[in-house]
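Proteins fold reproducibly. Look at a concrete instance:
___
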Amino acid sequence: MGFEGTIAFVDLREPYAVRRASGLHVKDEPERGEGAYMGGAFSPDGATFYYGSADEGRIVMLDVATMKVAGAIDLNTSGVEDSFVGDLALSRDGRRLLAVDQFNYRLAIIDVPSRRVVRSVRVGRNPFAVTFSPDERSAWVSNVGMFEYPLVPGVTMSGSAIPRRFRQASFAAGCFWGVEAAFRQIPGVTATAGPASATVSSAAP
């Protein structure tokens, strides 16, 4: 999924053809949604692609053959509002879809045939990614931005003082991956520490 609002499908067989779904924010196709964030999953037969429509609180079902919207799943149900769809995970049989709702700090468990949320599980602050356990009896959710990071490996605020040879600087940035990569190129920088997964929650779907 690109910044320009397109979804590119790459055939993994030679000659590796690329097909693109038109922009998500197309005025005459509002069912595509205003945008997408990070969640995406293929149905077991590869015929349907599910993607989160970001802060619209929907999961859009895209027909891969026609590149047309086949349906949508609403996460703003049963009194829940302002859902923001993050990562997705689909069961091997294609009947259960897990969706991280980043604004409501929950994992939404969806029955695909009925296209409805059947259960919501609170999974802690700032949930980011989700995956099924190998037997699909549990789901693992990672959380980011917990702000509980040691200043230097082995050193904490309640522990020993920061060695004099170290100096720490803190910066705010929109994309910490890019910022970390840039700082690693500066002579004298010994380590960088951006937001990373700090907690893991387990939920039985």
